Amino acid sequence: MAPPSINCNEEINWDEIGFGIVPTDSMYMMKCSTEEDTFSEGTLVPYGNLHLTPSAGILNYGQGVIEGLKAYRSKDGRIVMFRPEENGRRMKIGAERMCMPSPSVEQFVKAVKQTVLANKRWVPPLGKGSLYIRPLLMGTGSVLGLVPAPEYTFLIYVTPVKTYHKGPLNLVIKDKLYRAISGSGGTGGIKSVVNYSPAYKALKEARAEGFSDILYLDAATGKFVEELSSCNIFLVKGKAISTPTAGGNNILPGITRKSIIEIAIDLGYEVMEGEVGVDELMEADEVFCTGTAVGVNPVASITHNNNRAEYKTGPEAVSQKLLQTLVGIQTGHIQDTRGWTLQIE
Ligand SMILES: Cc1ncc(COP(=O)(O)O)c(C=O)c1O
Questions:
Q1: Are residues 181 and 127 in the same domain?
Q2: Domain final position from 161, 183, 213
Q3: Residue whose CA is closest, atom 15 of ligand 1?
Q4: Atom of ligand 1 nearest to the CA of 257
Q5: Catalytic annotation present for 191
Q6: In a shared domain, residues 209 and 325
Q7: Who lines ligand 1 at CB under 6 A?
Q8: Ligand 1: distance of its center to the CA of 279 in Å?
Q9: CA 276 → CA 110, 222, 223, distances in Å?
Q10: Which of 34, 151, 210, 303 could form a disulfide with 141 if both were Cys (CB 3.0 to 4.6 A apart)?
């Protein structure tokens, strides 16, 4: 397809894009066999279906990790990404846990950049959304026994998504319901593909009961909150902000979470990372969650057993101040003093 002479695709009604997959122009692919053990040169190929052996490790045993990041238009129309090297680092940690080789952080960032540039007409105009980037590392070699695949593929595809304004969330905590594979030896601290679909059944039930998402408890004691299905959680009490310690086996160390901690400290809040008990959460002034998809999303209520706690939301909420600062840095409205944004065009 000939590259357009315009910045954004004029054929697209940007007001109509949602959260489905919009097929874009190109995707990136790079392979590695366990004999070589390193990824060499990848290439851009037209966006389309994959050719996979039915016995691929990813299809049979879920040997795979994903990442999720975005490319945005800044206020002057340039394309920027937010801390892509952090996603590259997280993918490496996940790959090690899932017994897979992974691209280096430099290869990861270069490949993401190349994929975005090849699809730049799909980056929505400022205020209309962003280009969601999905790197996927998977065992594509053939396996029958329970062993790591002999070949791996690193793939990146992109799709435009609208700005996500879900409104304040109504969460539910269910006793004895844990996210993915939590607990010792678990994979909750990485973005393994096996962590997500186990939550579908409980999520479907929670949504049918009128809740937006589930807030999961730790599997070891059932007393401490961990995170939502795909977001980290924070609570605000006075000038103090708390969030469960991430990493390890249970909680994904979100890049938005890490950034919001720094922004909150800069704005004068005391930020504590540690165990967050259900009781403490139910008594908070404000609760919000963070993630690439939502940015910073306020929580209106949490229901646990027969108790429902309600929290402050609206323009005066701390979460709004944090979200505005984050988006301001991403779009260039606020000076990026930490080198978080990577301008690629
Ligand atoms: C389980 C889980 N927790 C938290 C997050 C938020 O992480 P990030 O801020 O890096 O998007 C995600 C999304 O990647 C997730 O899947």
A1: no
A2: 161
A3: 230
A4: 9
A5: yes
A6: yes
A7: 68, 191, 227, 230-232, 252, 254-257, 290-292
A8: 24
A9: 38, 11, 8
A10: 151
Between the CA of 292 and the centroid of ligand 1 the distance, in Å, is 7
Class of residue 44 by CB neighbours under 10 A (exposed 0-12, middle 13-18, buried 19+): middle
Q: Of 208, 209, 217, 210, whose CA–CA distance to 173 is shortest?
A: 217
Rounded to the nearest 5 percent, the helix, strand and coil shares of the chain are 25, 30, 45
Domain that holds residue 21: 14-161
Give the closest residue (by CA) to ligand 1 atom 7: 254
Tell me whether residue 1 is in a domain.
Answer: no
Verify that 185 and 301 share a domain, yes or no: yes
Same domain? For 90 and 139 the reply is yes
The pTM score is 0.94
Q: Does the structure show a pLDDT above 90 at 9?
A: no
| Catalytic site residue from 92, 113, 120, 191 | 191
Is the domain of 107 the same as that of 85? yes
Q: Which of 86, 89, 232 to mutate to test the pocket of ligand 1 (most atoms within 8 A of CB)?
A: 232
Amino acid identity of residue 88, one-letter, is G
Protein residue with its CA nearest to atom 4 in ligand 1 = 231
Q: Flag whether 303 is in a domain.
A: yes
Q: Is 287 helix (H, G, I), strand (E, B) or coil?
A: strand
* pLDDT tens digits for range 59-77: 999 999 999 999 999 999 9
